[in-house]
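Case study 2.
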Amino acid sequence: MSIQSTSASARKLAFIHTVSGLVSEFGALATEHLPDWKPFAILDESLLRSTIERGSLSHLTKRRLATYVWSAVDAGADAIVVTCSTLGPAVDAIAPLCPVPLFRIDEGMAKAAVEHGNRIGVLATLSTTLVPTVDLLKRQACEAGKNVVIDEVLVQGAFQFLPDGNVEAHDAQIRQALEELSQKVDVIVFAQASMARAVKGMDHSLPVLTSPVLGIENVKRRLGQRKDQVRSRAT
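Prediction:
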């Protein structure tokens, strides 16, 4: 586990990561979309690795994530984002107890998907991420009062290319699955932030939603709403 920190002068936004390659990406997104916030990162790849090996999210992993959340609070975080969609159910369980706003990165993507259409395709490279993503989409659809049909696809074997650095093979499998699924649905979501790169520069005939940018935009919107609520209570 490693912690990367910044100066303590401004409000602090903590990112909890399980994939090292996402640290710089989310740091840049925070700088672009939340310039008044100072990001810092907590990284522990074993949270995801142990979940993949087990095939489900264990109570131990949930407890370990809670420890990182409180570590971020102790480090001065004014808000926290967990960038691993696999850990989404754990984030939901911890959030009501957290003294600062705690966000799952895929919430913004799920909200946008429900707005785009009634037939939603979900692509994932990990089975442990597919279930929480589908559950989140159903919940968002229920909150929006919409009936949706979800077509889920697991891109078998693609994730195994990443530890070896074979990004091209990983992305190629995702693109092929995307082309096939796009014939059946109104909108497609990528269940993992690590998949977003696969569609950069690619032309596609329907909306393809990924969590990094939509997730940060959602965090910005919700933090703004929270700030407005505090102001209204003060007046």
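The first strand starts at residue 2 and ends at 4.
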